[in-house]
Amino acid sequence: MFDYSQALFDSDIHTLNIVHDVIVPIQVIAAVQRDVLAQYPHLTLNWLHRTRQQALRMLKSGEADIALMPNRGQLFPETEIDFRGVGSLKIKIYASKHSALSQKTGVTMKELQSETQYLTENFVAMDVAFAKVSPKIRIVSNTDLLCELLKQEGWAALPALSMTSPCSGDFIELSVEEMGEYKAVGLNLFYRHGKDKSVMFSDMMSVISRTCQSALAF
């Protein structure tokens, strides 16, 4: 049987630094860590929250090995960065269960425009229809903080998978008349060009891709 721990030291990959957007559900991150460490138990796996611009710089400099970022409808123009799709996030609209919006059987885009909208930093730059709806936008860098503020007022577009945690009981999914059941936003795995020439790195990316696709099938 192939000795993964021996391959680890032979390939000189002892640490894997993964940078990620705050929109990536913690369930996906936990599943990836579980599956990667199941094959490479001696690997040190670091998870670093960064903006898209920071992630790109870190990939180029070698500070990061992989970036998990949502697709914003365009490719990185830099030729030294490659990517592969690993599934789609199902984005839905949520508000506090105490919000006036939550008392309605259905809401309109016009009603959403009259309420405060919370956005994470990278969502501001994304080219999706619901990214910027309300003129009353508040940008928050941390999803946990966003959810805490959302308890007080407003609404937010969040991955449905993220709202399966215990704290999600504070929120209600809104049915928006002009929107379908959800909006799909692709999740991509970015890495520096040529890095996949390493057998071990290529194998780890395959594990991460399969795990993400499985977790996002929710």
Automatic annotation (TrEMBL):
<feature type="domain" description="LysR substrate-binding">
    <location>
        <begin position="19"/>
        <end position="207"/>
    </location>
</feature>
<dbReference type="Pfam" id="PF03466">
    <property type="entry name" value="LysR_substrate"/>
</dbReference>
<protein>
    <submittedName>
        <fullName>LysR substrate binding domain-containing protein</fullName>
    </submittedName>
</protein>
<dbReference type="InterPro" id="IPR005119">
    <property type="entry name" value="LysR_subst-bd"/>
</dbReference>
